[in-house]
Every structure is written in C-alpha cells, then in structure tokens.
Amino acid sequence: MNQESKSLENKQIRFVTFHPSFSYEDFIEGLTAKETDNGSVSYKMDPGIFKDVCTDAKEAYRQTPEGQQAPPYVLIIDEINRGNLAKIFGETITQLELDKRLDADEEVELSLAHSGDPFVVPPNLYLIGTMNTADQSISLVDAALRRRFGFLSFPPEYEVFEEAYDFKEMDPELTRVLEASITALEIINRNILDTGELGKGKQVGHSYLLNHESVDDVVNAWRFNILPLLDEYYFGDIERLQSVLFETESSALFDVERREIDTFDRETLLAELEGLQTRSAYDV
Hints:
This protein is α/β, with parallel strands linked by helices and 284 residues long. It has two domains: 2-146, Rossmann fold, CATH 3.40.50; 160-283, no CATH class. The chain is built from ten helices and nine strands. It is elongated and about 65 Å long. The two termini are 38 Å apart.
C-alpha cells in the first residue's frame, strides 16, 4: 500500500476515523446551519467525505478514455467498527458491492435521503477499513457489511526488527535487552495462541518494540504499554497472567498482593525476560 500510494495524488486518498457519534450526516450528507448577515439562520446541504470522494472518483472515471483504467481513489476508514455502520452508510451500503456500482451489470443508483440527489458508487473507488479486534469494548463488523469487504489479518511480524535495528552496531546492552524482548514477545504470543483463552486477535503487536534508542525506552515500553495490555486481557488476574503467559508462579514484574504491575529496573526486566526464554526452551 505504501509503495502504491506514492504514485497517487493526495486528492485520491482520503482518510476518516469512525467513532460512536459519527453519523450519516458526517459521512454522506447533512444540513448545516449558518447565521446570515441580518441575523437569520440559513441551512445548507453539505456533502460528507464519502459523497465527496465518490463525486471525484466518478468524475475521473467519466473522463478516462475507453480502454484505459480509471485512476483509483481510496477512502481509508480507521477504527471502522467503532461507528454504527448501518446508520453511517445508510442506503448506500448496497452500492458497495462491485456488481451494484456505476456501469456494472446490476448498477444501483439511489436518491439520497436528505437531498434526493442521485447517487452511485464508481468502480474506481476502494474502501479500506482498519479495526482492532482485540478491543472488547467495541463490536465487530455485522454480517451485512462484512460480506461486502474482504478481510486480511495482520499478525505480529518479527522480521521487521532486523530491518529496524542494526544490532551489530548498537550498544551491547541495548542489543541484549531488545533481543530478549523480541524473544519474550514471540513466546508470549505463542502462549496466547496455545492457551485458547484469548484468541489470535489478542497477540501483542511488534510496534511496541520499535523505535527505541535506549534501554530505558524498552523498559518503559514493557512497564507502560505491554504489561498493562496483558493485565487488561486478564482483568487484573495477575496469578493467571504469570502462569499462562510468563510460565511461572512468581515474577518480579508484578506485585501479586496489590494485584498490579510492579516498578522494576532494567536488570530486573532482563532477568525476567531471559528467565522466560529459559523456561520456554525447557518446556520444549
């Protein structure tokens, strides 16, 4: 996507984030009020981002000579499952299907609910939605919208660390802590998959261990990002967390009595991560 997006003009790529209060009026079209010079209020029908990008993509499609491929337009919807999708897409949900788009065999042209304007989705428009399946506070995509999208999973990619870090040229202590962290992350994610309690969507992403320039950066990533995430997965059940993910009944990273993540230094973290590696290797 990154390489392809470089060849696209800025106007061809749009970005929007869904949230619980995001509405049809934000996405398709809605009335906005504006005070006039004489103090009265006038109302104007403003297009939403989806209607805007459809209009631009349709114009580009119409201007493309026959036999040539129309320039692609992309709408990226971040956190797509945080919004009420049925309300946001409204009547346009049917038009997402390829055979319902402009010039398709079963083209569907609708009259929009507010303005009554004719509306059709062009074939050169691509919608990309991102979602965090680990977040239990939000719903997954419903069946009606799910069948109109293809789904791709993006599990942790440990190979990126070789590209991100020059381990041979780095400070030896930082190298040791990072390598121990990467191995521990792989073991923890393997345990998440093996236990069956959490599911593959709860694996810890590799981004937590990227862009660290010091040992303290790595320590803080564990203290304030990775461990709190795991603690949340187990709803504060430290004993269960230690047993399942860290393969031990006691870890210096946690305060079992207070049922919270403990404060720890680099030496403690390194000892615990390397200890996990030793236990895991022994189990194998």
